[in-house]
Amino acid sequence: MPPATPDPAPRRGGAALELLVHGVGGATPQDMLGDPRTVRITGDTTAAVYRRTDDADAEQHPERYEDGPVPEAYCWSNLTSGNGARALWLLLLPFMVVNLAHWMRPTARGRSRTVRLYGMLVRLIALSLTVLLVAAACEVALDLTAWQCAGSARCSGDSSWIGFLSAANDGWWSQPGRRLSLAALLPAALMGLLWYLSNRTWSAYEAQRPPNITTTAQPWAAAGPEQQETLRPALGRPGFWYGRRLVARLRAAHTAAGFLVIAAAVAGAAARHDRGADVPALEVAGWALESVLAVMGVFVVAVVFRRGRSENVLDNRIDRAVITWLPGGSLVLLALSMLYASWSRPGWLSHGTLPGDTAFQVLTLAQGALVVVLAVAAHLLHRRARHARTALYGMGGPAVALLACALGGVMTGGVAQRVADWLDGPGTPGVGEGPITGPPVLLSWQASVIPVLLLLLLVPLGVLGVRTWRTARDLAGRVEADYPGERPDPVRTRRIAGTRARAGLTDAAPALLGILCTATLLLGAGAVAGARVSGEVPVVAFDKAHPVVEAAVDVAQTLGSWLIGLGFILFVTWGRRAYRDASARRTIGILWDVGTFWPRAAHPFAPPCYAERAVPDLTWRMASWTANTGGRLVISGHSQGSVLAAAAVWQLPAATRRRVALLTYGSPLERLYGRWFPAYFGPAQLRALDGELHCWRNLWRHTDPIGGPVRVPAEDGKPQVDREALKDPMVYGRTDTHPLPEPVLGHSDYQADPVFAEEREELLDRLPPALPRQRDESATPQGSSGRSSG
User: Fold this and answer.
1) Around 780, how many Cα atoms within 13 Å sit in the side-chain half-sphere?
2) Cβ(577)–Cβ(610) under 8 Å?
3) 3-state helix, strand, coil in the chain (%, to 5)
4) Is 7 within the bounds of a domain?
5) What gap in Å lies between CA 442 and CA 136, rounded to an integer?
């Protein structure tokens, strides 16, 4: 009898590499590689590729790795949560949120002008947030401190640190203009700090040129804007992760805008006095200075109007005239304004408040109008490319922009309210009990609507809680059906079903955000209207109303004032805690892992985009390793790491991309990014990515609150990208192989499931065999040899 023919072995094509990319919150190379002994292959202390020490020279000993790929770990967590100083990025949260709104636009089809309008509107909203921040700083330093408190004998007498500014001392600094000029140094220092932080992070991120590994002409580079999304996804364009020019332009414009706001506050107060005095020379100087400030403001808005960035090529141009003369000219105007205000004006006394109330009302109305127009533009874009999965029917960008404005208002209003209470001592600003008038009326009205907003949110949150409980109850039978042959355990079933139901809360986020933004818009409009009509704080405005109404308004204003102040204090406290507490620093890092994936295209003072370092790192590593070895590569991304992996694969040349397999697990590619950023991760873009890859597999669980299926249909005979949902827990009850209860893993430990190794091996077997090693300098990034440098 002839011997049995052995089963054919899987196709092994020589060298193989698995490039692991961790998700949010970071991970150590030791945890990712399952070995306490690791060595850095390439990179620095911020972001690097690691291997196990025994695998450092794997390319020289391929016979050792016939049974599996060489594992490598790319660690990027220090890009977002490396040190305590970055915890202060919490204070830049509104800037980060408005930057997200830029990338949330719906897919454009034949609407290139609307796309440009959408981007311009978001940049204007971002500029208004900078103006709001500086206006709040001016309100605190100039109005409340230098104008009101220093002009009041009671207030300055109670505060020894401000006594030298007191009008009662009749000293050199007692004149209001000189006090304002000195106080202007505080908001000017704030603008200088923001400029410094933006410039420093720009040098570390945007200024680093990514590798240009594309050597052939691209047919889509010369196409019109309305055709480029069809011909080539945006994330695959050479200049997408290179925002150096745009950030430099926006930084110059926002810095200039901040200095101009300070100059206008200082010069405006002096000019208003001079127009009522009999000094023609000073009156003419005031008019001339205010006119020049207005012209310079127009220039700033014009710079913001123009995007000034190209994604089709690596745009190395720098608009030196803009980034040098615009902030420099505004700084000169600020110095001239301070000099003009410091001119001696005997008899000038400060009383009442500076016209900050009108300024805040105009700014709030402008933000509301911009958000409404942005919503119209988003609707026009969405109706040309509708998709049922798109969050808020394409209104995600306007909703997030409104949320950024609300966050900015809460933070700035909270600071103004708390400083006013501190300066006023036991009195209540604005009701005649204290020595100062207090902050603008609008801030008090905004404080009054915050408790109302929180009460309104209790209704949808309650409905969501009841629905989650009912969903968990209904899932009990399905959970037990997933484990046939097991003896039902009601406690175990409820725990698994409850985890699945809570994981589905992520899909309710669009509806909750829509309700929040609608209520915020209506209540904000009511606050502006109330402040405009009453001309005084709510307590005084309703002093003749029904006692119940008066009491409700009083409670709302007081509670709201404390809430916004408490919120700001919590932000600062959390930031200070992160200096000493690694766990708090890690939590803040998770926020930025999600929020700072996108380049700074709207606000230059937002936290930097870590993907502008991570994506080129991954692209360079994949391209260099495959070019040097001719081997097969699986890039394996978990959670946010799967988004980085997909973005890096998009950047590869077509020939390299065909030698790379993508394995994603716990991936938010469709569930979060596809729904909220449809122009970049929408259904068409994910289908295009699958078509350009040789193979792609996605793993997910019903219990995962972040990851989910990518919903890419199988085409051209290729297998389905999504595998059926993994069982979680892997085993329902106790067995001989699992004598202890298995945990419900949710979003973590996908590699613990045996299915993970099976899918990885299947992807490697589907890739073409390794090619003979070639030295093609045109396709290999300079300086990448794939050798250990550890």
Assistant:
1) 17
2) no
3) 60, 5, 35
4) no
5) 12
| CATH number for 721 | 3.40.50
445 part of a folded domain: no
Rounded distance, CA 597 to CA 640, Å?
A: 9
CA angle 313, 317, 318 (to 5 degrees): 145
Task: Please tell me whether residues 158 and 291 are part of one structural domain.
Answer: yes
- Cα–Cα distance between 426 and 56 in angstroms, integer? 68
Residue 216 in contact with residue 778, Cβ under 8 Å?
A: no
User: Measured between alpha carbons, how far is 604 from 588 in angstroms, rounded to an integer?
Assistant: 20
Q: Please, which residues bridge with residue 43 across strands?
A: 48
Total domain count for the chain?
Answer: 2
Q: Say how far apart CA 771 and CA 14 lie, in whole Å.
A: 8
Same domain, 186 and 60: no
Same domain assignment for residues 71 and 94:
no
Whether omega before 729 lies within 30 degrees of 0, making that bond cis, reads yes
pTM to 2 decimals? 0.89
Give residue 116's domain range.
90-214+224-397
Q: In whole angstroms, what is the distance from residue 185 CA to residue 181 CA?
A: 7
For the chain, count helices (H), then strands (E).
Answer: 27, 7
Residues 708-739 pLDDT 10s: 999 999 877 788 999 999 999 999 988 888 88
Q: Per the domain annotation, does 360 fall within a domain? A: yes
Per residue in 203-234, pLDDT (tens digit) is 766 666 776 654 333 443 444 444 444 446 88
Q: Which residue shows structure tokens 């945007």?
A: 206
CA angle 76, 78, 82 (to 5 degrees): 170
Are the CB atoms for 395 and 403 separated by under 8 Å? no
The two beta strands, 16-21 and 632-638, are parallel
> Which among 450, 418, 402, 455 has a CA at the least distance from the CA of 572?
418
Q: Are residues 20 and 156 both part of a single domain? A: no
Cα–Cα distance measured from residue 83 to residue 579, given in angstroms and rounded to the nearest whole number: 8
